[in-house]
Specification:
single chain; 338 residues; alpha/beta; Rossmann fold; 7-stranded parallel sheet; two-stranded parallel sheet; 11 helices; globular
């Protein structure tokens, strides 16, 4: 197989490219000039330099590919427009390039549980639930999914919505590991101990490959606002929910801590901290680790069910989350990130 991976130099891309090379695929990566490709440079991959705004680079990247894994996008942004340009417009440009190929590839889009919105009443989200995102990031990912639905008659497309992804090379959750290592404290926003679904990047990658190979394909009503079919859509998670405090304790254990203190941050503290970072973002024009969107997300449960992927694709996560946390700690330690 010849595969294209956008976002191949990123965290999930690193794990996907490694696995595809292990399977013997010829892998091509779309990367921006100046991107750090150190983790995949030794894996004998082909690089096409460009970005999601450069249509000619996308056409070069897609040419001759059997599968396109679209991982590239923005998780943090200065403005709402930045999210839309990267996550929605960029996806549309890549889809247009794909349908121009002599043999249109299978298209697997890595979305996010943020596109679905939080899970209410402790019930995990399923693919046929109406999507109700609550942040600009989630709205932009859902908009990209709707763009994909517009192309479903011209291109075989599937969408995977991961829960919180962690693992080696992940910078987003690294700060939690650092806090627990240095202070022995796991901060929990607000008085509520929210529950999240999690998935290790290695397990997510297996689902992406299964989806490309034999997954259901999107139809026009996959994310309809009234009656979504969920066709071609899969949630990705290791379980249906683990409390942040429990994850913190597992991280502490993997770091050799005898005890990890769970520190609940009062809502006023959460608001003050997120407002501080919002002001900093406005003044500096740079992304920040915590803002109003993150504060909003932290008030809710984010859980999803993988029964559809288990039933249709025989997807199974057999390694416990605690073991995956230990593996992640070992990766951080080995690469001197901790």
């Amino acid at each position: 197989m010849r595969t294209l991976v956008t976002g191949g130099s990123g965290f999930i891309g690193y794990h996907l490219v490694r696995r595809l090379r292990d399977l013997g695929d010829d892998v091509r990566c779309l990367v921006r000039q100046g991107s750090d490709v150190g983790f995949i440079d030794s894996l004998s991959v082909e690089f096409v330099y460009g970005d999601l705004r450069d249509v000619s680079s996308l056409e070069r990247a897609v040419k001759g590919c059997d599968v396109v894994y679209h991982l590239a996008g923005r998780v943090r942004a200065i403005s709402k427009r930045d999210f839309w340009v990267a996550n929605c417009d960029g996806t549309k440009n890549l889809l247009n390039a794909s349908i121009k190929s002599d043999s249109p590839p299978a298209f697997v889009y890595v979305s996010s549980i943020a596109a679905a919105g939080p899970s209410g009443n402790n019930l995990p989200k399923v693919e046929t639930d109406v999507s109700l995102p609550i942040t600009d990031y989630g709205l932009s990912k859902l908009s990209a999914e709707r763009v994909i639905a517009d192309f479903c008659d011209r291109l075989p497309c599937s969408i995977v919505r991961p829960a919180i992804v962690f693992g080696g090379a992940d910078k987003m959750n690294l700060e939690l590991y650092k806090t627990i290592k240095k202070l022995g404290i796991c901060p929990v926003p607000g008085w509520r101990n929210s529950t999240y679904s999690w998935i290790h990047a290695t397990d997510l990658v297996e689902l992406l490959i299964l989806t490309a190979k034999s997954g259901e394909r999107v139809d026009a009503n996959v994310v309809d606002q009234i009656n979504p079919t969920g066709k071609g859509l899969y949630f990705a998670a290791a379980d249906e929910g683990t409390k942040l405090s429990d994850v913190g304790k597992m991280i502490g254990k993997s770091l050799g801590k005898r005890r990890t203190l769970i520190l609940h941050c009062p809502p006023l503290t959460v608001l003050t901290l997120s407002t501080f970072y919002e002001i900093k973002k406005f003044l500096t024009g740079k992304n920040v680790p915590y803002d109003w969107s993150k504060a909003t997300e932290s008030k809710n449960n984010w859980c999803c069910s993988t029964k559809k992927a288990e039933t249709q694709l025989n997807f199974k996560v057999t390694t416990p989350i605690e073991t995956r946390i230990h593996e992640t700690t070992n990766w951080y330690t080995e690469h001197k990130w901790l």
